[in-house]
Input
Amino acid sequence: MEYHQFSCGCKFPIQGYFEDGKPKIDLSPTIENIPLDCSRTWEMLGRGDTFGVFQLESNQCAGFSKKLKPSTLGHLAALVSIIRPGVIECIEDGKSMTNHYIDRKNGVEPVKYFHPALENSLKNTYGIAIYQENVLQISRDIAGFSLQEADLLRKCVDPNCTVELENGEITKIGDVNIGQKIKTLDGYTTILDKFNNGEQLVYKFIFNNGQFIVCTDTHKLLCEDGICYSAYDIFTKRIGVQSINGIIFIEKITKAEIIETIDIYVDHPKNIYYLNGIASHNSIGKKSTELMAKCRTMFIDGCKKQGIVNEAEATQLFDWISVGQRYAFNKCVSLDTIVETKYENKTIDNIEIGDVIKTKNNEYTTILDKINTGIQDIYEVELENGKKIKCTLAHKFVCSDNKLYTLQEIFDSNYEIICE
Output
């Protein structure tokens, strides 16, 4: 077969020639033969021209794509992960792990590892744990975790959501017991374990057919492509979710609230069970303090048994992992919120990295990074002194006891916020 090769290196089959001698080119690549080394494509992404590119079309993605200048599929996959708040907000040596990844990929700084034993787990990500899979591999390599134990490091649902028992009875997930069987994609699966995940911020995700699920924004659901995505990603990217009633789409999200949550493990090869008739993954969401303490103890004990790192190194390593893998999608303020710089007042929307803004006690602090966290439910709060702020219920304020509390906690316990 004859091919025509473009200047970027891509070549496509020639199906004949026009009267003027120019070739008729078949420009219909398939997933099997699509060229992955097209220089023009990578140059386009390196310029930040990502409008219309799935998962990369936000202004934030475009900006970081311009900084990263991806040149492989691995870089492209990493781009989606390094803009997670957990990675962006994890600061080491005065710089976010996001910028460390970018600089290491571009040769601005050398690749280094938190501990030499992590090279096997983090070699492909320049020494940075940007994927949850990195965490799973670290816990297996360093702490000797099984797959199930490793999955504890990444975990919530409303206990009032329902499951179907083997006898056809519909019951609240909070009332099921270890050993019972519940409905899944291809029959029934046994509950292996059940955890109390403590108080969590949850949302009600309502689907286009009226079904709903109440869970954290990081709870994972099985989607139409057979992959599990967080509820947050499913909503923002309009991904179809598998359910008893076929493929459904999240139509809207109602108010957030903080409630007691639980999680379960099931004996299913894909770790899936039906929750309110929606295919849910059973290793999900944010960690409660109690669960994190359990994970920490297991991790440190496992490291001591393996003997690869000592106890002090294991403790530091766990803290490093937990900071980099946390989520903060719901801790935000509106773009018109005003902050005071050294020279003028600015809205959050107009603040730039490097700006110096006022903090308490008339001190100033430097903006290290700025994160676009998408569409959120926000509330306008008016204080006794007449000042107003628009933010989510999970946004935190310093109170009179010099401790940080979420807006929800402040409402519930009548804490006093510190103001000028």
Notes: Residues 88 and 98 are 5 Å apart (CA to CA).
